[in-house]
Write a structure and sequence with these properties.
Length: 366
Amino acid sequence: MFIDIACSQKKKYNQNAYGDYFASNRFPNMNRVVAVLSDGLGSGIKANILACMTSTMLLKFMENHSDIEKSCEIIMNSLPVCKVRGISYSTFSAIDCFENGKAKIVEEGNPDFIWIRNGEVLKPEYQTIQSKDFKNRKMKVYNIQLEKYDRIIFCSDGATQVAMGSKRYPLGLERSGLIKIILDKLDQNPEISSKDLSEYLVKQVELIAPNKELKDDTSVVSIYCRDPRESLIFTGPPYHQEKDSYYTTANIISRELNIPVIAKLSMNAGKLPGLSEMQGVDLVTEGILTLTKTLEYLESGKSENNAAKTLMDFLLDSDVIYFLVGAQMNKAHYDPNLPIEIEIRKNIIKQMASVLEEKYLKKVFV
């Protein structure tokens, strides 16, 4: 079972920094995922620093195999109180989850998480732990067993309190309103990815806000338990030329399987070669140039409409990615007029694997 996790966020209207902070990590060798969503007091830079500090510290505790419950209790008892408002500097939701479905969730101050199975909202039991130092501070601890196709949703109160005081939502959207939006969307698209669902929910919250101006930072974390989507990326011919005729990678497959490669018309490719087609293959592109640009897009999160964006989208839609990497250099790339940033293929793949694992929480094997 694969744990598909994603977070989408919107800043408070007219602010230049997020007051919420999301941090997560995946441990492929342990089949384990840890994640924290923290909501900093207020908004802007100060809230961002407070939320970042809380999420980062808590994630580090969990990464170092500290018990999530003990780690959260330490954080809960350590957070200072605002002298003006008399409340904690930040709130948080944390999850430690394994691919066998065993999960522990701890919440302090954030809206209760939402657990959906077969279109029904489950109501799990929890233990309450009262802070020893702060009477108005307590956390909920859940030990749950997830099943395939379950959904978990965390959010900051910007999502549940949106439009509070308006005629339609005098108490805000509330958790019940968010649940309705989630169930309606899942009814339309039962297999929607965590990324698409979290982005959709944040967009709906923004549409509900008066004049579409959010009065608070809004974050939604979506978790989806499902079968992994696996992909295989084959790039580069073998280093020892006697092992194979000197062909491009696609032509090796084409020759061995007797399937032709058909060039497609350019799709606004810019400086990149366009795509090709081959029966039974999802994507055929040029090699090192496209890989280099794809790495740039993965690192920056910005892209153009070309073959590299198509490859990036394919990678981001995959959970487990296998790279088969040939080490032969393409002699065409010794042209000194080509961009200086082109690196040896294996180094590009190594960097791409790191970004996919660390930034996008993919399982990658080279």
